[in-house]
Design a protein that fits this description.
The complex is a heterodimer of chains A (325) and B (341). Chain A is α/β, with parallel strands linked by helices and 325 residues long. In chain A, 38% of the residues lie in helices and 21% in strands. In chain A, helix 8 (212-227) links the parallel strand 10 and strand 11. The model of chain A has no long low-confidence stretch (mean pLDDT 98). In chain B, strands 1-6-7-5-4-2-3 form a seven-stranded parallel beta sheet, sandwiched between helices. In chain B, strand 4, helix 6 (165-176) and strand 5 form a beta-alpha-beta unit. The model of chain B has no long low-confidence stretch (mean pLDDT 96). Classes of the chains: A alpha/beta (325), B alpha/beta (341). Bound molecules: thiamine diphosphate and magnesium ion.
């Protein structure tokens, strides 16, 4: 076991796959010699050289389009979009081209590619550099979507994404890059489409994603210590495919469900989870499902405002405690 | 300065293209022409549903480039892509069948007229969002460069496409990475219904932009298949030699409206008639006659092609509609569409 930061685990996952497979190549803005604006690709340029780690112009459409063209002709590209908000300028490539091409060509074209991007709030960057947009990607058929919450997970899920034969979007969380965690030695290879039960409990289920996972865990500890409420915490990890079995298995046991989402309220991923659980586990529930989300507003920049906007440990504790009370 | 590349005068004895290629070119031009006409007929019979964008009048661009391509080269084209897909060797029945929504279609009815694809022929897709395929073509060219093959990627698009961001991103990207990609602007003078000159800052929508990316401006007579073939050959040679991309503007004209619903009323009187005098298929036939190719040989190609188009039509008409379980197939590489366990 080694202790790595989330950002170093990203680089380690990419390096592992580049070492293993010559077809894996990396492209994006400032990812080469500079090591990425979030320093998540440090060392790769030195190790694999400019032929495999390629700096691009500020051309998001060209980055994603080039990844697509390379994937359909035999490479396994990993494209970086610096901030997930910039999906707005290459959304055609992601949602119209990459997501649909296998289907439209009746399976003639394979697109084994990965798009990595820095997602989420907490950096006081304001409304255009702080969004959580994993729900955009989740809404488009043909994209696989993961959002890891720990260094071990990000390494293993990047490896799984690279080896997957379909396009996978990896949402890395900006506020997690500096977080440290144990990462097992040796080859990391996780599975897409598998949620994880991080803490067991009998009173309620809290399903969370990415930065909301450590907050849900801290909230669960406080709920136990201060209110005697035993929460089961599920790290959803993968939105597509969605591990409904793990989530529903827990709901059947606890009879209560809370989702903790960084997405703004309307059509956040928790809405889909809530709908599925309501449809399929209605008679197992003792009370309405509760979604804890960012309110339906663009994100403000000031630290005090941003902190009060995205779900906090306090908000999770209060909401759960009141609903369970 | 932009110059128009034109066919040089020829005699049969001094012919850089040669008999075998010339006959193939004529056969291809005819196939594209007759197949597109058939597509239009089938539309009038309500057998082609949805939309379709014909290349009638623009066949020399598709044929001239395709004839110079190697089997393992890649073609990327637009919704106006029937001709480009056929020119790479896709079966006529597969193309007509796709337009008709039949199981025999090149994508079994899942793509439709605007998304013809035949990977086995190097036809890497028809793209219907303006400009999207230029970056994708860069990626295919990058892959060829990375893998150390000397495959060339050819990317066709319209004059209107030169005003969208992806065009400019792709050109800069291709030049900076020195990619073996040839961008071909088929300038048919109109976007959908608007004359390109009224919405573009320069007179030659592609060629006048070339210098911004350090490329030579190249304009070719897109109705002269020989001129197109020669320009293509030069660009391919450079690309295969690792000398980077090219941007070629082919001047041409579509004989029909933008898409099936368009009567093209916006065109000034007499414009179509003028261009019909330079019909690329007729031009080519006349050249072959001038070069001494026997009338009988040409007629036999014409009859044979007409017969093959008829056969393809029959076979497409006889094909069943796609099985409904196709709806749920091939979202993912495992063949399915499951998004949950
Ligand atoms: C991004 C985008 N905007 C608009 C359209 C609608 N549209 C379809 S074809 C077309 C005209 C394109 O003109 P040009 O590039 O000259 O190609 P041509 O049809 O003449 O071959 C337009 C505007 C589209 N498909 N995609
Ligand atoms: Mg046009």
């Amino acid at each position: 076991m080694a202790e790595l930061t989330y950002r170093d685990a990203v680089a380690a996952g990419i390096a592992q796959e580049m070492e293993r497979d010559e077809r894996v190549v990396l492209l994006g803005e400032d990812i080469g010699a500079a090591g990425g604006v979030f320093k998540a690709t440090v060392g790769l340029f030195e190790r694999f050289g400019p032929r495999r780690v390629r700096d691009t112009p500020i051309s998001e459409q060209a980055i994603i389009g080039a990844a697509m063209g390379a994937a359909m002709t035999g490479l396994r590209p990993i494209a970086e979009i610096m901030f997930s908000d910039f999906f707005g300028v290459c959304w055609d490539m992601i949602a119209n081209e990459i997501a649909k091409t296998r289907y439209m060509t009746n399976g003639q074209v394979a697109l084994p590619l990965v798009i990595r991007t820095a997602n989420g709030a907490g950096s006081r960057f304001g409304a255009q550099h702080s969004q959580s947009v994993e729900n955009w990607a989740m809404a488009v058929p043909g994209l696989k979507v993961v959002a890891p919450s720990s260094p071990a997970d990000v390494k293993g899920l990047i490896a799984a994404a690279v080896r997957d034969p379909d396009p996978v979007i990896v949402f890395e969380h900006k506020s997690l890059y500096s977080v440290k965690g144990e990462v097992p030695d040796g080859e990391a290879l996780d599975a897409l489409g598998a949620a994880k039960v991080l803490r067991t409990g009998k009173d309620c289920t809290i399903a969370a994603l990415a930065l909301m996972v450590p907050r849900a865990m801290e909230a669960a500890e406080r709920l136990q210590a201060e209110h005697g409420i035993e929460c089961e915490v599920i790290d959803v990890r993968s939105l597509v495919p969605l591990d409904t079995r793990t989530i529903m298995g827990s709901v059947v046991k606890t009879a209560r469900l809370f989702t903790v989402e960084e997405n703004p309220r309307l059509c956040g991923w928790g809405a889909e989870v809530a709908s599925l659980v309501a449809e399929e586990c209605f008679w197992d529930l003792d009370a309405p499902i509760v979604r804890i989300t960012t309110p339906h507003v663009p994100l403000p920049a000031a630290d005090s405002l941003e902190d009060a906007t995205i779900p906090s440990v306090e908000r999770i504790v209060d909401t759960v405690q009141r609903a369970m009370g | 300065m932009t110059t128009l590349e034109q066919a040089r005068p020829l005699s049969a004895a001094d012919d850089d293209i040669g008999r075998e290629k010339r006959l193939r070119m004529y056969r291809m031009l005819l196939e594209l022409r007759l197949c597109e006409k058939r597509a239009y007929d089938l539309f009038l019979q309500n057998l082609v549903k949805g939309t379709s964008h014909l290349s009638l009048g623009q066949e020399a661009v598709a044929a001239g480039f395709a004839l110079g391509m190697r089997r393992d080269d890649y073609t990327f084209c637009t919704y106006r892509g029937h001709a480009h897909t056929l020119a790479r060797g896709a079966a006529m029945a597969g193309v007509l069948g796709e337009l008709m929504g039949r199981a025999c279609g090149v994508t079994a009815g899942k793509g439709g007229s605007m998304h013809l694809t035949s990977v086995e022929h190097g036809a890497m897709g028809s793209y219907a969002i303006i400009g999207a395929h230029l970056p994708v073509a860069c990626g295919a060219a990058w892959s060829a460069q990375y893998r150390g093959t000397d495959q060339v990627t050819v990317c066709f698009f319209g004059d209107g496409t030169t005003n969208i961001g992806a065009f400019h991103e792709a050109l800069n990207f291709a030049v900076v990475w020195k990619l073996p990609v040839v961008f071909v602007c088929e300038n048919n003078l109109y976007m959908e219904y608007t004359p390109i000159g009224t919405v573009t800052a320069v007179a030659h929508p592609a060629a006048d932009r070339a210098s911004a990316y350090g490329l030579d401006p190249v304009i070719v007579d897109g109705n002269d298949a020989d001129a197109v073939f020669r320009v293509a050959a030069k660009a391919f040679e450079r690309a295969r030699a690792g000398e980077g991309p090219a941007l070629i503007e082919a001047k041409t004209y579509r004989h029909s409206g933008h898409s099936r619903a368009d009567p093209a009323k916006y065109r000034p009187q007499g414009e179509l008639e003028q261009w019909l005098q330079r019909d690329p298929v007729n031009l080519y036939r006349e050249r072959l006659v001038t070069l001494g190719y026997p009338e009988l040989d040409l007629r036999s190609i014409e009859q044979d092609t007409a017969r093959r188009v008829d056969e393809a039509t029959q076979s497409a008409k006889a094909s069943p509609t796609p099985a409904l379980d196709l709806i749920h197939k091939d979202v993912w590489a495992n063949g399915g569409s499951a998004w949950r366990n």
